[in-house]
Amino acid sequence: KKSEQELKDEEMELFTKYYMEWKGGRKSGNTSYTNIPRFYYRLPAEDEVLLQKLREESRAVFLQRKSRELLDNEELQNLWFLLDKHQTLPMIGEEAMINYENFLKVGEKAGHKCKQFFTAKIFAKLLHNDPYGRISIMQFFNYVMRKG
Predict the structure, then answer these.
(1) Which InterPro entries match (predicted)?
(2) DSSP character for 136?
(3) What domain range is 132 assigned to?
(4) Do the domain assignments include residue 25?
(5) pTM of the complete model beyond 0.85
(6) Would residue 47 count as lying in a domain?
(7) Where are the alpha helices (DSSP H) in the chain?
(8) What was the pLDDT predicted at 17?
(9) How deeply is 76 buried, as exposed, middle or buried, from its count of CB atoms within 10 A (0-12, 13-18, 19+)?
(10) Which of 61, 88, 138, 145 could form an SS bridge with 99, CB 3.0 to 4.6 Å?
(11) Which of 97, 104, 107 is nearest to 131 (CA)?
(12) Nearest CA among 71, 74, 83, 82 for reference residue 138
């Protein structure tokens, strides 16, 4: 008589054999799962001083890089000046508006940090029911301040 473990082993062998026959005898047609990047790393323990220092340094470098991408006060003032200079008339009440053509002109003059905000997608997102196809300068500027 066979032991319970031997029966389980035999069952697994038969399952593997029949499964491989059913799949056509190949190991696997899709091996993309072997190329999945690792996205989780456990936090270092308290006694892993070197790993903790590495984590702190990595975080500091990441935050420095992100802060360099942010617009400083002078760049925000320059952006506001350019938007105001290129506004498209008529105004809606007190609100200055800008059309897509002038929007692109401002994007060219604003500098490389601002380029990410001067896309058709962002213009379309802020476009509402203006009969002239314009967006509010104030809404766009607030968008830049929130996202940047």
Answers:
(1) PPP2R3C
(2) E
(3) 73-147
(4) no
(5) no
(6) no
(7) 4-22, 49-69, 73-85, 100-110, 120-126, 137-147
(8) 87
(9) middle
(10) 88
(11) 97
(12) 83
